[in-house]
């Protein structure tokens, strides 16, 4: 299996994503001090632009932490020991919510859906009705490990008018690819991450709280220091409570500036949807099944035939065609391939990646994908 060295490596995972030249150039700019007026101006503009992505009038905080750090911050700033939380779990990152809840001495209720499926709104409502002590519902918008899209808008109808319960949404792999309106829907805490639609490396995250969530913050008793959002209220003045990630923030500013144009967010969402539909057509043309129902526009998980080892397939495609696809995690390892539709991934990138997947399947089973199938591929 010789590498095709004439091919440029292509990253088609659901995060991290390819970093476009605009961002690479920004990342290489000279360092400036995080307490100077030049940085303050950039920081304020960046935070204003982030509000458009979150579709909120609330403050969006920038944290020097991966998305998991923002997830932790969401709990530490709103809850108290022994508070009851309901985790809606349908994959690896739903399990992460549950692990966090137990780590922070919260009382855990858990509603599981089969991996690749989503939860029933009626079942969630029943649990809320039976457990009025629930303080927060913890959920992903897109469960990245399976590609399923949770019904966030419908879940928000269960909490929006209830002053005693928060809806906390990890939207890390959905923001910028899926239409999620924080204010209009009534989401109380929403979280994003730099390595997805924002086209940056991992290491920076974003979080916004509703007015109701800030009321919870007043009575929160979980110990918090570095991720304390009260400290981070200085961000409204163009500063951070601790040292700022100047390089990443400059790059994020460069990414967000073009989105000031009319319908900038809509165009991002439409692009991810178009890439998603292209992948669905590819699957249909090769009689491959999409694993998640309903699937997220940000990532498509493709079920592999039982006799195909997804780990070996993924490795072969990386070595032979220089294309990195996402694999299955945990119980799905070797069973699915995940294709990202986020950030700077282009139509040509996706066509190349999907063709490499078809050729990889052909290598492992020529009966499964024939030469004619590849010639007639529909994207």
Number of strands: 14
Q: Give helix and strand order, one letter per element, not per position.
A: EHHEHEHEHEEEHEHEEHHHEHEEEHH
How far apart lie the N and C ends? Answer: 27 Å
- Fraction in helix: 25-40%
Arithmetic mean pLDDT: 96
- The computed structural class is alpha/beta
Major sheet characteristics:
7 strands, mixed
Overview of the structural elements:
The protein is of the alpha/beta class and 379 residues long. 39% of the residues lie in helices and 15% in strands. A seven-stranded mixed sheet has the order 2-10-9-8-5-3-4, sandwiched between helices. A three-stranded antiparallel sheet has the order 11-14-13, with helices on one face. Helix 2 packs across helix 9 and helix 11 crosses helix 12. The relative contact order is 0.17.
Features:
alpha/beta; 13 helices; 39% helix; 379 residues
Present the secondary structure layout.
Blueprint: E1 10-11, H1 21-27, H2 37-54, E2 60-63, H3 67-76, E3 84-89, H4 92-103, E4 107-112, H5 121-130, E5 134-140, E6 142-143, E7 148-149, H6 152-159, E8 166-170, H7 182-185, E9 189-193, E10 205-209, H8 211-219, H9 246-256, H10 264-285, E11 299-303, H11 310-321, E12 323-324, E13 326-327, E14 336-340, H12 347-364, H13 371-375
Parallel strand pairs: 1-12, 3-4, 3-5, 5-8, 8-9
Antiparallel strand pairs: 2-10, 6-7, 9-10, 11-14, 13-14
């Amino acid at each position: 299996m010789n590498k095709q060295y004439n091919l440029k490596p292509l990253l088609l995972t659901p995060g991290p994503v390819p970093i476009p030249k605009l961002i690479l150039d920004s990342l290489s700019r000279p360092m400036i001090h995080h307490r100077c007026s030049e940085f303050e101006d950039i920081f304020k503009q960046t935070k204003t632009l982030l509000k458009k992505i979150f579709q909120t009038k609330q403050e969006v905080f920038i944290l020097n932490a991966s998305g998991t750090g923002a997830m932790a911050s969401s709990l530490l700033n709103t809850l108290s020991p022994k508070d009851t939380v309901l985790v809606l779990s349908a994959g690896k990152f739903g399990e992460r919510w549950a692990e966090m809840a137990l780590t922070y001495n919260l009382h855990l209720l858990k509603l599981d859906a089969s991996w690749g499926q989503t939860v029933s709104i009626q079942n969630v409502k029943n649990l809320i009705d039976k457990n009025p002590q629930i303080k927060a519902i913890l959920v992903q918008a897109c469960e990245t490990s399976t590609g399923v899209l949770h019904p966030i808008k419908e879940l928000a109808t269960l909490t929006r008018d209830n002053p005693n319960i928060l809806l906390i949404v990890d939207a890390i792999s959905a923001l910028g690819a899926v239409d999620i309106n924080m204010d209009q829907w009534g989401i109380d805490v929403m979280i994003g991450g730099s390595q997805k639609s924002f086209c940056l490396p991992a290491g920076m995250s974003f979080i916004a709280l509703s007015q109701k969530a800030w009321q919870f913050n007043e009575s929160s008793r979980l110990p918090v220091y570095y991720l304390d959002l009260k400290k981070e209220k200085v961000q409204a003045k163009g500063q951070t409570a601790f040292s700022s990630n100047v390089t990443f923030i400059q790059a994020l500013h460069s990414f967000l500036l073009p989105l000031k144009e009319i319908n900038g967010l809509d165009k991002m969402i439409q692009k991810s949807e178009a890439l998603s539909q292209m992948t669905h057509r590819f699957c249909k043309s090769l009689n491959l099944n999409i694993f998640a129902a309903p699937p997220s526009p940000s990532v498509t998980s493709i079920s592999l035939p039982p006799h195909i080892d997804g780990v070996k397939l993924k490795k072969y495609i990386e070595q032979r065609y220089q294309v990195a696809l996402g694999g299955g995690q945990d119980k799905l390892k070797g069973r699915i391939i995940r294709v990202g539709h986020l950030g700077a991934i282009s139509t040509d990138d996706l066509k190349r990646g999907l063709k490499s997947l078809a050729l990889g399947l052909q290598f492992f089973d020529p009966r499964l994908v024939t030469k004619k199938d590849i010639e007639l591929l529909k994207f």
